[in-house]
Specification:
The chain is an alpha+beta fold. It has one domain. It has 5 helices and 6 strands, in the order ααββαββαββα. Strands 1, 2, 3, 4, 5 and 6 form a 6-stranded antiparallel β-sheet that branches. A hairpin with a 4-residue loop joins β3 and β4. The two termini are about 20 Å apart.
Length: about 140
């Protein structure tokens, strides 16, 4: 999987963050947690989720349509590491195609976000396994 720019990263939050989670653990002994939720701004919700949608995905077994959720990594101290949200917004909002290193978002646990916030609903990869989302490579927004 080529991951050189916004276009390459957009819609691939599950495989990208699963891969980075394993790399962080193996190469740097850094623990992180798959976190499933959405990203909220003042006037836009990226991959809006709800507990009703989660229940529906579990009832149907998922896998038929792309999972409508965003996945990022939460580090042990609560910091957020997100490699795909900005990339997907580059594509959705026609902001241009940017190199991968410009798409990485790191939000320290101590920082209060002024332009919105992440809304976690689930932590861990069990939901992704139960719904078959590991095979879904694009997010339907």
């Amino acid at each position: 999987m080529d991951l050189n720019s916004s276009v390459d990263l957009a819609g691939k939050c599950i495989p990208v963050h699963m891969m980075i989670k394993e790399m962080l653990k193996k190469d740097f002994s850094v623990e992180s947690h798959i976190t499933i939720g959405d990203r909220f701004w003042h006037d836009y919700v990226y991959c809006e989720m709800s507990y009703d949608l989660i229940a529906k995905e579990l009832e149907t077994g998922g896998g038929v349509e792309p999972l409508k959720a965003h996945v990022w990594l939460t580090l042990q101290d609560g910091s957020i590491l997100d490699f795909t949200c900005e990339a997907h917004l580059d594509v959705l909002m026609d902001r241009g195609d940017h190199p991968t290193h410009e798409c990485v978002g790191y939000i320290p646990a101590s920082k209060k976000m002024t332009d919105g916030y992440y809304r976690p609903y689930l932590v861990g990869d069990e939901f992704l396994k139960r719904t078959g989302a590991f095979g879904v490579l694009a997010v339907d927004v």
